[in-house]
């Protein structure tokens, strides 16, 4: 049976335009639809929207390390290697296919390595992690342990991700990282000096007699023990990731800065982005503070020997 085409033409032409009330109803419907979609996304991603606090920050951290918030990245190469990444949606480490090059730091060879780096646990110590405000734009006041000053400091947390070196109060930070229960007392330093008369001594090509010699006590060793470890004396560490970044490290044996390949995460402070930076912080400073040999001229030595 064939329907006349005029019926469809008449229906299309006689359809009335949408009234203003219909438009407002449609806009209201769209707003409700967007709100429902966001709510469903929130429940699907985090299990519940109640995980977010009134200040906009998550009530509990989902990751131990900031790098674990990155998505799985197979990289540009075509190999197929089984690797593990931390899935922030699921809150656990999962397997993915890695191409063999490139990618990002959320890439681990074993499940154990992934969980050690990313899964939050009370048994882990987060105090060595750097300050991490996270990718969001909030301004929640939080506290982190600063390894350089060995003190807890405040910072502004964006509200999502970051890392586990993130405490809601100064007391929580100090209890976890500064160990206020058993504080380490700084050694007492005595600056008094003892003066005594000594026999003639040789000092840089000149003979001095009867001058008082300042004998320092053992506090120099105590002060030395209080100083932080010199980063320039640390061994080269490439880290535990898979990148190959060009970096420079200072070698105390050769007294020079040498190039090495940095994996992209981990390692230590003996790691500089340029040879110039390494030279300024390590090589030149050590050369300026190096000890000079005291040489005695032969004629002064003859005078000393005749006077004995």
UniProtKB/TrEMBL annotation:
The keyword Transport does not apply. PROSITE patterns: BPTI_KUNITZ_1, BPTI_KUNITZ_2. It comes from the Eukaryota. Its main location: secreted. Gene3D superfamilies: Pancreatic trypsin inhibitor Kunitz domain. The keyword Signal applies. One of its GO terms (biological process) is blood coagulation. Residues 1-23 are annotated as: Disordered. One of its GO terms (cellular component) is extracellular space. InterPro entries: Kunitz_BPTI, Kunitz_BPTI_sf, Prtase_inh_Kunz-CS, TFPI-like. Pfam families: Kunitz_BPTI. It is found in: Secreted. This is Tissue factor pathway inhibitor-like.
């Amino acid at each position: 049976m064939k329907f006349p085409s005029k019926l469809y033409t008449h229906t299309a032409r006689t359809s009335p335009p949408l009234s203003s009330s219909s438009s407002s109803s449609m806009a209201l419907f769209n707003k409700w639809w967007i709100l429902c979609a966001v709510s469903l996304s929130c429940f699907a991603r985090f299990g519940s929207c109640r995980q977010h606090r009134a200040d906009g920050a998550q009530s509990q951290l989902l990751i131990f390390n900031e790098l674990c918030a990155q998505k799985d990245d197979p990289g540009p190469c075509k190999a197929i290697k089984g690797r593990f990444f931390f899935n922030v949606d699921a809150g656990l480490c999962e397997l993915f296919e890695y191409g063999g090059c490139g990618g990002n730091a959320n890439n681990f060879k074993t499940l154990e390595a992934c969980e050690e780096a990313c899964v939050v646990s009370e048994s882990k110590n987060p105090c060595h992690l750097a300050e991490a405000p996270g990718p969001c734009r909030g301004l929640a006041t939080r506290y982190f342990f600063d390894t350089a000053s060995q003190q807890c400091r405040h910072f502004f947390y964006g509200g999502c991700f970051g890392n586990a070196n993130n405490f809601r109060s100064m007391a929580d930070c100090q209890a976890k990282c500064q160990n206020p229960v058993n504080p380490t007392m700084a050694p007492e330093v005595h600056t008094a000096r003892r003066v005594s008369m000594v026999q003639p001594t040789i000092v840089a090509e000149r003979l001095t007699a009867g001058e008082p010699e300042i004998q320092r006590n053992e506090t120099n060793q105590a002060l030395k023990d209080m100083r932080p470890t010199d980063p320039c004396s640390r061994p080269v560490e490439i880290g535990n990731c898979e990148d190959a970044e060009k970096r420079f490290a200072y070698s105390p044996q050769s007294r020079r800065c040498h190039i090495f390949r940095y994996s992209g995460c981990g390692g230590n402070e003996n790691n500089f982005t340029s040879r110039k930076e390494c030279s300024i912080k390590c090589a030149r400073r050590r050369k300026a503070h190096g000890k000079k040999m005291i040489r005695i001229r032969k004629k002064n030595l003859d005078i000393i020997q005749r006077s004995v």
